Amino acid sequence: DAGVTQSPTHLIKTRGQHVTLRCSPISGHKSVSWYQQVLGQGPQFIFQYYEKEERGRGNFPDRFSARQFPNYSSELNVNALLLGDSALYLCASSWEGGSNEQFFGPGTRLTVL
Amino acid sequence: AQKVTQAQTEISVVEKEDVTLDCVYETRDTTYYLFWYKQPPSGELVFLIRRNSFDEQNEISGRYSWNFQKSTSSFNFTITASQVVDSAVYFCALLPDFGNEKLTFGTGTRLTIIP
């Protein structure tokens, strides 16, 4: 079975631009979470979506938004990019959220110049 | 507030040596979950173990073992007879039992196994 997939793998943007990152969960998983991992740090929680509704939000500005589609895939959008948004963005899926094990994708490496 | 501390930033050991990675956590919740993840150079986080706060039994899986001590808020990870393939960054993480998936990660420990 395919694991969590993310696209694109790498992305280079300039300050002020907008970016959309995509995630496809493991088949049958209904919960998707997004994390930001800055170089040398642990991942920071951004959002969780379960059954297309937001279940949790981390301490990130409103420039960050996300949504989940009927097929449980998800998009993370970041507006007005800043240099500090450069990071590895990880998507994780689980069966139904909560304390279930989260399976992580390979991530999207975003570089903002 | 939740907090996870991994005081060891980097560790290097010679292959076949045993190594222990420390994890100390802070939470006011009575029910919570602790995790260890491995992050190889490829970047993908690999799940290693989940432990709930009511289960303090130590666990062994092959060369890996985990020591959960609620009295000291620690959840340490030991690799026995280390191998070069164990080289990676290891993260300890905490999840409160709120029904969401907000994992709080430590800053990670970079483990290098020297052949």
Features:
heterodimer; A: 113 residues; mainly beta; 7-stranded mixed sheet; 4-stranded antiparallel sheet; B: 115 residues; 6-stranded mixed sheet
Describe the structure.
- The complex is a heterodimer of chains A (113) and B (115).
- Chain A is built from no helices and 11 strands.
- Chain A is mostly beta strands.
- In chain A, strands 2, 4, 5, 6, 9, 10 and 11 form a 7-stranded mixed sheet that branches. In chain A, strands 1-3-8-7 form a 4-stranded antiparallel sheet, with no helix packed on it.
- In chain A, β7 and β8 form a beta hairpin.
- The radius of gyration of chain A is 13 Å and the shape is globular.
- The termini of chain A are far apart.
- In chain B, a hairpin with a 7-residue loop joins β10 and β11.
- With 115 residues, chain B is mostly beta strands.
- Chain B is built from no helices and 12 strands.
- In chain B, the strands form 3 sheets. In chain B, strands 2, 5, 6, 10, 11 and 12 form a 6-stranded mixed sheet that branches. In chain B, strands 3-9-8-7 form a 4-stranded antiparallel sheet, with no helix packed on it. Chain B has a two-stranded antiparallel ribbon with strand order 1-4.
- At the A-B interface, β4, β5, β9 and β10 of A face β6, β10 and β11 of B.
C-alpha-based Rg of chain B, rounded:
14 Å
First CA to last CA of chain A: what distance? 37 Å
The biggest beta sheet of chain B reads: 6 strands, mixed
Low-confidence stretches of chain A: none
Query: What coarse outline of chain A follows from CA principal-axis ratios?
Result: globular
Which chain pair has the greatest contact? A-B, 29 and 25 residues
SS-based structural class of chain B? mainly beta
In this structure, how is the largest beta sheet of chain A organized?
Answer: 7 strands, mixed
Helix percentage of chain B: under 10%
